[in-house]
């Protein structure tokens, strides 16, 4: 597999010098062992890959989301179902000098840690269950104003038992338009990233659904996504108050009633049951209902997944929702489950491609280091789709390239009249040493 053959599609979005440096770095990263730092990469590069060259690359302004799109476009062309998914990942960092370092919550450690955080957008191929990262941006926390810290005095509440607060709404208050919400700075920033991706892709791929975890399970996030022309799939709190639409008769005065009975998660009517399955001691019941949430302006397509332990009678449930009322309940579950593919991207980037290893501290090198790791995840997935050499995992891929790098070094030491059959046998043997999933007689 010639790496340059896979990277030649990038010549429209980066200059030749940067492309040449990228090819050199990619070749080194595919075969190297140890920590993926600038120094580590330079030790595995061949001619033209000095440490200074690596430094120049990491300090170059690169539009990574265009590079990722040109790389993955061919793999996604012709696919029927493509989703836009997103998530955040945290990279632990010690010290105080790394750009954007702060205390971010780590779901693995279950506590805030000194780290930097990245927001990543990916295109998900539903048919092949594969996620391709297209944009990764660093999250910066807003700096709090500490000028008046310590000067604020606690307001003393006057107790007056004789006067009670009047019932009902305050005089002059008006109904708020739940569709026209003021987006927070974080939502405006995320919305800008989504629009960038949509503008880049254009009409080449039809994107209709955006999937995010429970952090976007609120009306502000829903309106932000709908303003981009997409439908949202996310998760609500397990105890969210949901209401059936009112079906009774008009009282004859006042406004028409909107909310009917409140949903009781412990006693959902069987007429809303769409699937029931028992595996071992666990029964899984799935309910699909269109319900109101008082913080949302429109009906929501709700899917409640209820699991019951038959032996202990313990019950747990998850509440998924979509703004698309026509979307089938099975697709809501499938799409939300496939959102986890982006977590595998983060895992591979940290384990194999240096997302946890880079030592850069300045803004541009940090940005390039993170995006290079995510780019390598995309490239490695495309390389693994080439079944001619029988590679089944990231470790197999790196072992295969490492064997070929060793073979190139050996060939330089062999006599020029060495039989090509011997060279081919050596190459095959070297590329198989250390492979986990060994496929014999691979072409």
Automatic annotation (TrEMBL):
**Domain Transposase IS701-like DDE positions:** 9-268
Region called Disordered, residue ranges:
142-178
Coiled-coil positions:
none
Q: Which InterPro entries match?
A: IS701-like_DDE_dom, RNaseH-like_sf
Q: Where is composition skewed (Basic residues) in this entry? A: 150-173
The protein in question is named: Transposase
Per the UniProt record, the source organism is Desulfamplus magnetovallimortis
């Amino acid at each position: 597999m010639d790496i340059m053959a896979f990277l030649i599609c990038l010549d429209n979005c980066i200059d030749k010098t940067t492309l040449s440096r990228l090819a050199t770095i990619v070749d080194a990263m595919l075969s190297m062992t140890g920590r993926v730092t600038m120094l580590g990469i330079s030790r595995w590069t061949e001619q033209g890959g000095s440490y200074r060259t690596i430094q120049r690359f990491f300090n170059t302004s690169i539009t990574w989301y265009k590079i990722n799109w040109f790389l993955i476009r061919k793999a996604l062309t012709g696919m029927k179902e493509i989703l836009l998914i997103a998530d955040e990942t945290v990279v632990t960092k010690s010290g105080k000098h790394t750009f954007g370092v702060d205390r971010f919550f780590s779901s693995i450690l279950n506590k805030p840690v000194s780290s930097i955080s990245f927001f990543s957008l990916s295109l998900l191929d539903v048919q092949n269950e594969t996620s391709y990262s297209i944009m990764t941006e660093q999250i910066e926390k807003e700096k709090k104003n500490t000028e008046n810290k310590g000067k604020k005095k606690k307001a003393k509440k006057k107790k007056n038992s004789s006067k009670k607060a009047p019932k009902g709404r305050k005089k002059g208050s008006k109904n708020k338009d739940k569709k026209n919400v003021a987006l927070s700075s974080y939502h405006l920033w995320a919305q800008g990233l989504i629009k960038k991706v949509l503008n880049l892709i254009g009409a080449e791929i039809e994107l209709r659904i955006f999937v995010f975890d429970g952090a976007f399970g609120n009306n502000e996030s829903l309106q932000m996504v709908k303003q981009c022309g997409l439908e949202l799939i996310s998760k609500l709190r397990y105890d969210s108050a949901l209401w059936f639409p009112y079906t009774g008769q008009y009282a004859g005065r006042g406004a028409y009633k909107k909310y009917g009975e409140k949903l009781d998660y412990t006693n959902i009517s069987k007429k809303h049951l769409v699937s029931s399955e028992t595996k071992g001691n666990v029964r899984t019941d799935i309910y699909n209902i269109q319900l109101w949430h008082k913080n949302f302006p429109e009906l929501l397509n709700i899917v409640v997944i209820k699991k019951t332990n038959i032996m202990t009678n313990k019950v747990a449930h998850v509440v998924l929702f979509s703004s698309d009322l026509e979307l089938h309940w099975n697709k809501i579950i499938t799409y939300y489950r496939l959102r986890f593919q982006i977590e595998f991207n983060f895992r591979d980037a940290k384990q194999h491609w240096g997302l946890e290893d880079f030592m850069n501290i300045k803004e541009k090198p940090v940005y390039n280091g993170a995006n290079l790791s995510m780019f390598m995840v995309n490239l490695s997935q495309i390389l693994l789709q080439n079944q001619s050499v029988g590679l089944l995992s990231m470790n197999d891929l790196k072992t295969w390239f490492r064997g070929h790098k060793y073979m190139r070094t050996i060939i330089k030491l062999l006599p020029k009249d060495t039989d090509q059959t011997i060279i081919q046998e050596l190459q095959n043997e070297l590329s198989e040493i250390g492979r986990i999933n060994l496929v014999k007689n691979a072409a």
